[in-house]
Amino acid sequence: MLTDLLYRLRSLFRRETVEAELDEELRFHYQRQMEKLMASGLKRDEATRQARVEVGGQEQLKEECRDARGVQLFENSLRDLRYSLRMLRKSPGFTVVAVLTLALGIGANTAIFSVIDSVLLSPLPYPDPARLVTLRQNDSLRNIDDILHQTKTLAHGGGVTIERMDYTGGPEPVQIRAAYVNAGLLETLGIAPMLGRLLSPDEDVKGGPHNMVITHRFWQEFLSGDPNVLGRSLTLNGNRYSVIGVMPASFALPEDETDIFVSLWVAYPEAAPFRGVHFMHTYWRLSPGVTLEQAQADISGIAGRLAQQYPDTEGKRQKTLVPLHQWLVGDIRPALLVLFGAVGLVFLIACANFAGLLTARAVSRRQEFVVRASLGAGRSRLLVQAITESVVLSLLGGAIGLALAKWGTSLLVSLKPAELDRFRGIQMDGRLFAFIFSISLLTGILFGLIPALGATSGNAADALKESGRGNTAGKFSDAFRNGLVATEFALALILLVAAGLMIKGFTRLQSVSPGFNPSDLMTMHLQLPITRYDKIPQQTAFRRELLTHLNGLPGVQAAMVTDLPFGGNYLDHRFAVDGRPPVPVGNEPVVQTLSVMGDYFEVMQIPILAGRGLTEMDRENQPLVAVVSEELVRRFFPNENPLGARVDFARTDEPHQWMTIVGVARDVKHGTLNEPPEATMYAPFAQSDEPWRRWMSLIVRQRGLARSSGLIAEVKQQVWAIDNQIPVSEIRSMEDWMSVSLARQRFNMVLLGLFAGLAMLLAAVGIYGTMAYRVSQRTNEIGIHIALGAQGADVLKLVLGDGAKLALAGIAVGIVGAAAITRVMASLLFEVTPTDPITFVLTTLLLATVALAACYLPARRATRVDPMVALRYE
Hints:
Number of helices: 26
Shape: globular
Largest sheet: 10 strands, mixed
C-alpha cells in the first residue's frame, strides 16, 4: 500500500513530462514516415494508411515504455523506503521522539473519535433507525392506545417503564430489571426474537396470561443458556411466568438495560388503567414517506383532542416528537464536541512538534540534499525522498497511537457517565483503521512537505559552505520553527484554561452540601411482593420489625425512605394547603413526596430547623403529620410560620385527610448537586394511604463502616429472617451514589485535564527542541561572546530571553483565543464564568514556568561552550 502511494506521488511529478516526451516522439515519427512514403510516389491516402500502421507499432512501444517507467518508479519507491528506514535507524533519538509525539496526538484523537463515532455518528442498531422517534415527555398506557388508534402518520408505537421484580429461582432471592411494556414496543423497534415469539396483543390485556420475553443475558446468566427454555416457568413477584421468547445478544432497549419483557396490564394492573399515570417512555416508528413535521402536526392534533376530553390529566401536557437518536445523545453532545475540539488542539500541537522536528532535521541534512542535487538528482526526487521519511514516521506513529487509543478507551469506559452507556470501548473495524490511516498519511505528507521544500531550495554553493547556515532557507526554517512553537503555546494555553475552568467548577460542585452527611452510610433496596404485602398493615409490620432488629445491632442506626437522594427516581404529587382558595384542576402546584420510617432525619443527619422530626409515635391511627423542606416553606409559606398548617395531596376524595406540618427540615439535593433543591414533603410510612408504594431504600449508618465487611451479610440475614423470599439489591454506599451523580462532570474534567497536561508536555518538548537546536546552531556565536568576556549568567540570560519571547508570543495569542473559545463551555461549568480571571492568571503563570524550565537545560548547555572549540569550528 505504501509503495503504491509513493508510486502515485512520484507520478504526479513525472507523468506530465513522460507523456509529453512520448507523444512528441510519436508525432515526429509519423511526420517522417509520411514524408518518406510520399517521396516514394505513394498517394497521400495510401501514405497516411501505412504511416498509421507504423505509428500503431510505436504505440505498443509507448505502452512498453510506460510499463518500464512504472517498474522504475516502483523500484525507486522501494529504494526510497529502504533508505528512509536506514536513515531513521541511524537517528534513533529523533525517530523515537517524532513517532511518540505523533502517537500521543493520534492516540488521543482515535480514543475520542471512537466515542464520537459510537455515540453520535453510528446509527442505532435497529432496522431503518431514521424512522424511529420518541416523545420528550413520558405518557400513560391509555394515551398510547388512543394515539395508536387516531394517528395517520405513525406505523407502530409502544411504551415501557422499568421496574424491579423478585426472582426466587436461584440460591438466594435477587431483583431483576423488568420492562413493563405494551405489545407494540418490541414490534416498533423491529428486532425479531432469537427463539420463540414476542408478546401478542391478545395477551396484552387485563387478566392475560403470565408470559414473558427474556434477554440473551438473562438467558445465559440465570438459565444457563437452556436450549429448551421456551415454556419454562419462573417465579417472579410470587407469580409464575412462562418464557415465550428469547431476544438476540445484540438487542437492547435504546436507553435502559433490562432482563425481561412483560405486559404492563399483566404485571402491574393497578397502574395500567389510569390515564394520569405518565410513567411510560414511548417509542414510535414513522410510516413510510412521512416526515417528522407531518408526524408532529398529527400528534399535536391528537394531544389537543385528549386535552379537551380529559382536562384534569391532559389539560396542559404537550407532546413533542424528536428523532430517537437525537434524544439519546442530546445531553451529552455538547460535552463530547468540546472534548473533540480539545483533542483536536492536542493533535495540532503534536503536528506542530512533528513539523518542527522535521524542519530541524531537514536543515541539518541540507548539505546532503544539495550534494545529491549536484550529482543529478532532481528536486522532485529529493522531495519524494523527504516525504517518504515523514510518511514512514507518521504511519509508525499511527500504529503506536492505535495501541495507545486501545488503552485510553479503557479509561473512558471506566469514567463514562450514564449517557455513554452505549459506548463499550474501541471497535477495531474498517472505519477506525481508515480514520487512523488517513490521519497518519495526511500528517506525514502535509507536515513533511514544507520542511522538504525548504531543505531542497536555495543556492548549492552556499549550502556547501559551513557559513551557509545563515542563508535564506535557514532563516526561513528558523522562522517556521519559531512560529510552530508559538502556536503550540497558544493552543496549550487554551486547553489549560479550559481544564482549569472545569477543575474549578468541579471543585465547587463537590463542595456543595447535599443537605445530609453521606459518610458511613450504606444503602440497599427492598421491594415487597404484592402477593404477600398488598395491604398497608402488612407492609408496616415488616418495616417496623426489620428496623427493630437492625437498630438492636451494636453501633448501628437504621431508617427507611421510599426514594433515596441521588437514586435517580422520586415521585411528585399535586399539593393543596388547607384554607387556601381552590386551584383549578391541572394547575395545582407539585411537590416531591417521600415516605419514611425510623429516625430518618437523625440517621441521615438532616438538621431539623423548626419544630420536630418524625418519631415512633407518628403511627397508624394517630393524627396525620408531615415534615416539609425549606424550599417548600419558601414557595408556599413566605413570611409566615408553617408549623401547624395543614396540607394534603390535591384531587383526593373528600373529605381531605389533612396532614399537620410538625417540622421544617433542611433542603436535601435529591437529583444532582448542581440543581436547585425541590420542595419536599416527608410523611410516615405507617400513615400512608398508598399501598402501591411497596418499595423502600434501607439506610444503615455505622461508624467505621468500611471496616465492617460483615454488616451487609448481617442485614441480609435480618431481612431473610422475616421473609426469605425478599431480595436485597443495589447495595452501595451513599458516597457511591453521589459519585455516580457527578460522573458526567468528572468525565469532562478528567479528560480535559489529561489533554491539557499532554498539550503542556508537548509544548515544553517543542520549545526545548527549538532552543536546543538554536544553541547548536549558534555555538560559534556563543563561543565568541564567551571569548570576549561574557559570563555564564549573560549567556543564560541570552538563551532564556529567546525562549521567553517565543513562549510569551504564544501565550499572548492563547489568552485571546481562550477568552473567545471557552465561552462555548458555559453550559458545562458550575458557578464559574468562562473568563474567570484567576484561572487565566494561574494557567498563564504555570505555562510560562514550564516554558522557562524547558529552556533552562539548553541554556545551561550554552554556558558550558568552550570558546576555543567554537572558534576552531568557525
